[in-house]
């Protein structure tokens, strides 16, 4: 979910000039919370927290009413309730979110084939080729918002601009339920007034690095020598920020979304200090990561481990594999190796396994020996059994017993695949 709470929004008037624009960024408004209100209208207008009402759950999303109290995604639900004690906590219904996401994406594809989903609730559209059929980008944006509301009952916000970067910034500023058009000739003026944190890729650490040098707005970036940006952020990010501040963004809309990583993590109901229990959970998560890789035809070259301790301090470790893999056993071995390198100084609150540096399965050169061959056959057989009888039908013996990961969810929920034509 976005960081905004809906205050201070800026929207364009009807008939605003959209000269030189071609990119739309469409972002559903507080998507998970909005779906819950759609299914239970008694929640409308109330502060809502999407997460488990019990145990150690984190916030998956929140309504704008809750965000105004400081509630944010990934925040512990317990902390969110301290900020907003009157909030209603609603358990997530991910199958329902995915179904409505599919419906929204189908609307996008009915307007243009050039759709790039970023997640289950946002996408870029290149509408340059759709002008003759549907009108100008601004007219298409207005039509799209009406269709989404009429066909799904949900609202969305739209940014219209000449580049992806500016379109995304515009949609964020117009939330909720708004549209902001930035014509090409206004791009520089629009950017100059924005804080540096609004630039793509500028996170909290980069923001601090810039602000300590007196660089607080995009206008300040424009007045800063390139060498200063490079020293503050590193040459690669310095170059990127230099270009984005000037409205230069050559990225096209790519219709095929390439996964950057696949991960699962779990927040425990009680902090865990027993390495044997943690190893079991690592195996469970690694198997789920492997299954997702195989179902999508990917292999991973890097495995990452994430731990959050009882005091909320978090660390990550990663390891590059000798050969890319989608085998859960190999992923689990790598995660356990990484775990062994960590000083378990206090009980663990959260544990996660992530596969990174993904590539299509089978493209890596074949090794002389395939150390994963036996496990690959076993896991492919398990995939078939689970597809036929359900995920719980067969599992490792070490994972039998009371399950701990009822609240464990993919760390990057994926948008549904575009409809076949």
Quick rundown:
With 421 residues, the protein is an alpha+beta fold. The protein has 3 domains: 1-185, Alpha-Beta Plaits (2-Layer Sandwich); 193-245, 5' to 3' exonuclease, C-terminal subdomain (DNA polymerase, domain 1); 261-410, DNA polymerase, Y-family, little finger domain (Dna Ligase, domain 1).
How is the topology of this model organized?
Elements: E1 23-28, H1 31-39, E2 48-50, E3 61-62, H2 64-67, H3 77-83, E4 88-90, H4 94-111, E5 115-119, E6 122-126, H5 131-134, H6 137-152, E7 156-161, H7 164-173, E8 179-181, H8 187-192, H9 204-211, H10 218-222, H11 226-233, H12 235-245, E9 261-272, H13 275-295, E10 298-309, E11 314-325, H14 328-340, E12 348-360, H15 373-389, E13 409-410
Parallel strand pairs: 2-4, 7-8
Antiparallel strand pairs: 1-6, 1-7, 2-3, 5-6, 9-12, 9-13, 10-11, 10-12
Helix pairs in contact: 4-6, 11-12, 13-14
């Amino acid at each position: 979910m976005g960081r905004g709470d809906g205050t201070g929004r800026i929207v364009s008037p009807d008939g605003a000039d959209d000269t030189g624009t071609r990119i739309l960024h469409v972002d559903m408004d507080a998507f998970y919370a909005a779906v819950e209100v759609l299914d239970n209208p008694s929640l409308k207008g109330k502060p809502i927290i999407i997460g488990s009402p019990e145990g150690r759950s984190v916030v998956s999303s929140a309504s704008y009413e809750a965000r105004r109290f400081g509630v944010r995604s990934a925040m512990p639900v317990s902390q969110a309730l301290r900020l907003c004690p009157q909030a209603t906590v609603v358990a997530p219904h991910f199958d329902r979110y995915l179904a409505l996401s599919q419906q929204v994406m189908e609307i996008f594809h009915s307007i243009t084939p050039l759709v790039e989903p970023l997640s289950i609730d946002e996408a870029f559209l290149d509408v340059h080729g759709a002008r003759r059929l549907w009108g100008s980008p601004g007219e298409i944006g207005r039509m799209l918002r009406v269709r989404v509301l009429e066909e799904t009952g949900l609202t969305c916000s739209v940014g219209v601009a000449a580049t992806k970067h500016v379109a995304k910034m515009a949609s964020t500023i117009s939330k909720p339920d708004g549209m902001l058009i930035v014509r090409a000739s206004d791009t520089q003026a629009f950017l100059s007034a924005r804080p540096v944190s609004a630039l793509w890729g500028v996170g909290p650490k980069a923001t601090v690095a810039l602000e300590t040098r007196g660089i607080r707005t995009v206008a300040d970036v424009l007045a800063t020598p390139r060498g200063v940006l490079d020293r503050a952020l590193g040459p690669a990010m310095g170059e990127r920020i230099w270009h984005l501040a000037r409205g230069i963004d050559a990225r096209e809309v790519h219709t095929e979304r390439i996964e950057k990583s696949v991960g699962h993590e779990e927040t425990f109901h009680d902090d865990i200090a027993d390495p044997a229990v943690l190893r079991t959970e690592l195996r469970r998560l690694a198997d789920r990561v492997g299954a997702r890789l195989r179902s999508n035809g990917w292999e991973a070259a890097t495995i990452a481990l994430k731990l959050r301790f009882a005091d909320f301090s978090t660390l990550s470790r990663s390891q590059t594999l000798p050969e890319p893999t989608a085998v859960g056993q190999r992923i689990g071995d790598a995660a356990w190796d990484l775990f062994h390198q960590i000083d378990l100084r206090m009980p663990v609150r959260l544990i996660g396994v992530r596969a990174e540096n993904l590539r299509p399965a089978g493209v890596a050169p074949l090794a002389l020996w395939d150390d994963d061959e036996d496990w690959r056959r076993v896991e492919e057989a398990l995939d078939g059994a689970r597809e036929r009888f359900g995920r719980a039908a067969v599992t490792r013996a070490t994972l039998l017993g009371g399950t701990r990961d009822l609240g464990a969810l993919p760390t990057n929920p994926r948008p549904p695949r575009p409809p076949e034509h």
